[in-house]
Amino acid sequence: MAEAYIVAAARTAGGRKGGRLAGWHPADLAATVLNALVDRSGAAPDQIEDVIMGCVMQIGEQSNNIARNAVLASKLPESVPATSIDRQCGSSQQALHFAAQAVMSGTMDIVIAAGVESMTRVPMGLSSVLPEKNGFGTSKSPGMEQRYPNIIFSQFIGAEMMAEKYGLSKEELDQYAYQSHLRAIAATEAGRFKDEIVPVQITRADGTTDIHQIDEGIRFDVSLDGIRNVKLIAENGKLTAASASQICDGASGVMVVNERGLKQLGIAPLARIHHLTMVGGDPVIMLEAPLPATAHALKKAGMKINDIDLFEVNEAFASVPAAWLKTTGADPARLNVNGGAIALGHPLGGSGTKLMTTLVHALKQQNKRYGLQTMCEGGGMANVTIIERL
């Protein structure tokens, strides 16, 4: 079987809800990343055989196959097909898995895996709310209700359940959130995101323009006391908005090729896809799946946790990576070394390839070999991707 390689990885800097990227249509925002991947790889636009794009809220401006619309807004020719997928928060990580499987099978040689979400222009949960407002049913079917009677599937509830199950105190979660900001600040000030971020031109309300290239969610004046004083999400809970991922606008992507693709492009790869894993778990606690998924992936790959040099675990809520650390025994110094979604933002369908972009560049900067990425997903699922820097 052929190997799968990453030859280019890029992302936009995150934008706060209603912030600097609010004026960008999501298809156009995604197109800027597609164009950047073509430019960075040196590929001819017509060499791209498919675009697979993650997006969660596929409604409104993100409807009608956002991936194809992004292609039509980019420099790629009409001959390049595209498809949009929804694996909840893991959508673009799954896009990467599908792209890798395509080139490993030999059915394609050069594929772009990407993701986008404008949480300003297509608010989270909108696709669930509209059917109810129009008198239609919800996503929980009678069959699901029979299996899970009177149970509400909620990531907020799942995050609190994880904090309770793994004995995480509010102080631990606040400390974790504080660390996320400190690491993101340090990475930004040291220029560690410079090579991965695609600069985007924005227009201010007064008509002047600027270049957006710094993640807008980072709180450069962060303090632990400030985080501690944020109101709890749930009464008697442990999590607050400060220890949860930030609503975010953004796009990201990676170009994936096999050996034939490498020869066609005439470039050296950044990394090799070493292993791909996908698991399902309890849909009630929901966000716990990265824990067994990591163990499963390491076993399948014949590796131990200490064989991995850097980890990216999505910070949907601080209880997820904190519980992951407790369970895996991983070195905390190797986890989310440049900060995570608590500081940088979580653009839902765009987060999978966003994290992979950061992981690829961090491995290069630190001259490390193996990286592992995982993230929790709605419905109780998790992807795990292990890469080897080359």
From TrEMBL:
<feature type="active site" description="Acyl-thioester intermediate">
    <location>
        <position position="89"/>
    </location>
</feature>
<feature type="active site" description="Proton acceptor">
    <location>
        <position position="376"/>
    </location>
</feature>
<dbReference type="InterPro" id="IPR020613">
    <property type="entry name" value="Thiolase_CS"/>
</dbReference>
<dbReference type="GO" id="GO:0003988">
    <property type="term" value="F:acetyl-CoA C-acyltransferase activity"/>
</dbReference>
<protein>
    <submittedName>
        <fullName>Acetyl-CoA C-acetyltransferase</fullName>
    </submittedName>
</protein>
<feature type="active site" description="Proton acceptor">
    <location>
        <position position="346"/>
    </location>
</feature>
<comment type="similarity">
    <text>Belongs to the thiolase-like superfamily. Thiolase family.</text>
</comment>
<dbReference type="InterPro" id="IPR020617">
    <property type="entry name" value="Thiolase_C"/>
</dbReference>
<dbReference type="Pfam" id="PF00108">
    <property type="entry name" value="Thiolase_N"/>
</dbReference>
<dbReference type="InterPro" id="IPR016039">
    <property type="entry name" value="Thiolase-like"/>
</dbReference>
<dbReference type="Pfam" id="PF02803">
    <property type="entry name" value="Thiolase_C"/>
</dbReference>
<feature type="domain" description="Thiolase C-terminal">
    <location>
        <begin position="268"/>
        <end position="389"/>
    </location>
</feature>
<feature type="domain" description="Thiolase N-terminal">
    <location>
        <begin position="5"/>
        <end position="259"/>
    </location>
</feature>
<keyword id="KW-0808">Transferase</keyword>
<dbReference type="InterPro" id="IPR002155">
    <property type="entry name" value="Thiolase"/>
</dbReference>
<keyword id="KW-0012">Acyltransferase</keyword>
<dbReference type="InterPro" id="IPR020616">
    <property type="entry name" value="Thiolase_N"/>
</dbReference>
